[in-house]
Amino acid sequence: MNTAVRRTKFSKYLPFYLLAAPGMIYFILFHYVPIWGIILAFQDYSPYLGVFKSEWIGFENFIHFFNLPDFKVLLNNTLILSLCSIALYFPFTVLLSLLLNELRSVLFKRIVQSVFYLPHFVSWVIIAGITLIFFGPSGVITHSLEEMIGRTVPFMMSEAWFRPLIIFQSIWRDAGWGTIIFLAALAGINPEIYEAGKMDGAGRLRSMWHITLPGIKSTIIILLLIRLGHALDSNFQQVFLMSNNLNIGVSDVFDLYVYRVGLQQGSFSFGVAVGLFKSIVSLVLVLGANRLAKWFGEDGIF
Amino acid sequence: MQLKRYLSLSEILIIAFLLALTSLVVLPFLYMFAVSFSSPSESMAGNFYVWPQVWNDDAYRYLFSSTRFVLAIWNTVKLTAMGTVINLILSVTLSYALSKKFLPGRRGMMMLIFFTMLFGGGLIPTYLLVKWLGLVNSLWALILPGATNAFTVMVMKTFFQGLPESLDEAARIDGAGELKILLHVVIPLSMPIIATFSLFFMVSHWNEFFGAIIYLNDTSKWPIQPLLRQMVLVGSSNISAEAAIDEQLAATLGANVKMAAILIAMAPIVAVYPFLQKYFAKGALVGSVKE
């Protein structure tokens, strides 16, 4: 009897295990097998010898990396780029949401939103292309500026303009998209609070400051923490497409370095070591951000 | 006087500011559109304009008669269609199974999936795996490594859990098998979330660039984005080895051809955008769902 019960139970579960199987195989194959590849970081891996016969060298790759002058440059470039992006992207997105929230015409609001969301779906290749069309050596903006001030500003061919351009691109592409979540939070604020504020004589600006902003405070904090948790992750495609030999001093970030040294120059072991260092620091940052969110009295990210 | 009743000064300022920002998004596209349809001599002048003086469709004729360009578009269509279907099948089946709370081992599987959001092997081990599987130089190298993802599975799982269980039972009493229930009951009820993720998957395949650069040595298999980079950008971004050769190609193309290529590559996204837009907000919001 027991076996009969077990058999009916198993036949009840079987279809679901079969449904889950392809997906689980995918996760194990493409996410857990590469984790196993991390052992390359501790080897002097040679493709000819393979993982099993390559020489073990312990932490040599890491020690070598930390002692390179590149290390400091990469850390600087990566952190400055993501912190500046966060510092400018967030206030702008919040401001945009507040302004959209003030609009009373539903039609106008919808049109503006449609336009603002669109760049999010444009590929980085096209965004870099548009940037070149406007800021390149023969770009429209470069050209008009040249006529105005009498000299060429090397927007895309200098270190000075790399960070401003990257930040501008990020805002242009994603600020509109970012308003979705704030607008949802804004819609959740109880309208009675505004009524009460009005009764007490609060104008538009005052109610914005004292009611609207506190109303979306927790959303802002959570999103900010998530972004800070990813401070070491650069937007690889964006940086890759915008970097060139003339701005490499400021555009070289961890992700780009792993690609260049690891894949292009074929130093697999060293590349894996750099990638692993970045992953571990990122993991710590994400977990730390989550802790911090809870400490702020929020639900946390997970 | 009439207007004054409806619009206060602050509102006019807000509208003006937002209009200025929208034009910052719209004008670059209008400019590219105008240049793509104007004669090379007009665009050589380097002036900003959004209406060509003389309409000229040479750029589009050139691109559609270029085997390389048409082939790249065709590769992208194939990649997008195949990739999206595989994404959907894998995501839906896995998250549907995980939405069944009675399934033994469900929590363990969830943990395994969630962990991939926090930590991974990174670029090089993934590359070596794809190479070891023999996928280099095939479109599968662009599809299989991203066949689904933890975020999608978790959001879909939550959505399926929210569906009423009684429907499921009714179908079972009528004699439907699990696959039949999934296909005929669950999926029709889940169209909003399926549409949202289809859009995200489609866009990411259409915009596929980096995978092609690292996995496809055979440029005849390239989708449109890497080719677009060569046509429009190379020369300004000479980090990679192939750049020097193609600098010549980029230099010979006129501005009208470059901008027409960009617009053609964007066209499908702009075309599906209005139909799927009503799902965007929802999709982005599910994005903020916490586990």
TrEMBL record, chain A:
GO biological process: one example: transmembrane transport
Transmembrane segments: 16-42, 79-100, 121-141, 161-187, 208-226, 268-287
Domain of life: Bacteria
CDD domains registered for this protein in UniProt: TM_PBP2
Membrane in keyword set: yes
GO cellular component: plasma membrane
Keyword Transmembrane helix belongs to the record: yes
Keywords: Membrane, Transmembrane, Transmembrane helix, Transport
Organism: Paenibacillus roseopurpureus
Main localization, broad class: membrane
Protein's UniProt name: ABC transporter permease subunit
PROSITE patterns, sorted: ABC_TM1
Protein's membrane topology: Multi-pass membrane protein
Family listed: Belongs to the binding-protein-dependent transport system permease family.
Signal peptide: none
All residue ranges annotated as the ABC transmembrane type-1 domain in the record: 75-289
Family matches, as InterPro entries: MetI-like, MetI-like_sf
From TrEMBL, chain B:
Main subcellular location: membrane
Gene Ontology biological-process annotations: transmembrane transport
Membrane topology: Multi-pass membrane protein
Keywords: Cell membrane, Membrane, Transmembrane, Transmembrane helix, Transport
Entry keyword annotation includes Membrane: yes
Family: Belongs to the binding-protein-dependent transport system permease family.
Name of this protein: Carbohydrate ABC transporter permease
Source organism: Paenibacillus roseopurpureus
Highest classification ranks of the organism: Bacteria, Bacillati, Bacillota, Bacilli, Bacillales
